Amino acid sequence: FYMGKITDMNVTNLPKGKIAANLGDAHEHLVSGILMRWGFIVGFVDIRGSPYDLFIVAFENSNRKEIILRAQVKTIDTSISFIGGSRGGIDREYKSGVKTYKYDTSHSDIILGIDRKTLDIYLIPTRFIQKWGTSRATSKIQLLKNNWDILLNWNNTFLGNLDKQIP
Fold first, then answer.
1. Residue-wise pLDDT tens digits, 104-139
2. DSSP output for 41-105
3. How far apart are CA 4 and CA 136, in angstroms?
4. Which pTM value belongs to this model?
5. How far is residue 68's CA from residue 38's CA, in Å, rounded to a whole number?
6. How far is CA 148 from the centre of its chain?
7. Which of 27, 34, 44, 112 gives the lowest tally of CB atoms within 10 Å of its CB?
8. Nearest CA-CA partner of 24 in 99, 92, 103
9. pLDDT of residue 166
C-alpha cells in the first residue's frame, strides 16, 4: 500500500483542473484548522465566488479587543498571486481581463497564502499589496511567514511598522 507524506499531492492522478480545485478547498480547511489550533475563532464563507473564504476573529492589541477580518486563502509555491476572479476547477474557462481583479481592501482584509509543500502560512494584510504588483515572491515576504502577531496586533501602528520592514 502507498505510504506517503502529508505534503504529497494528487496520488490518485486526478486531472490537473480537478486537483487544483481540490487543493484550494483543502488549503482553506488546513488554514482554518491551523488558526483554530492557535486559538482563533474561524468561520467559513459558504458562498462560492466571494472575494474572501474565511472570517477570523483577531485582536487589535493586548487589550484583546476583538475584530473580525475577511480572509482570502491562496495556495502558493515560490510566489503568491494577488489576482482573484479567475475560475479554478475542471470546468474552468478563462476570458482575459473579463472576470479577474487585483485584491484590495474592498475585497478582503488579509490574504493567507499557504505553501503547498511546507504548509507554512504567509499572513499578508491586503493593504500591503496596494503598492506591489500582481504577485510577490515568498523570498520577499519571509517576515510574514507564520507571523501570528499580525492577528494579535491588528492596528495601524503595528501594521505600519511591519509594512516598513518588507522590501
1. 999 999 999 999 889 999 999 999 999 999 999 999
2. EEEE---TT-S--EEEEEESSTT--EEEEEEEEEEESSEEE-EE-PPPSTT----TTTS-EE--T
3. 31
4. 0.86
5. 16
6. 13
7. 44
8. 92
9. 94
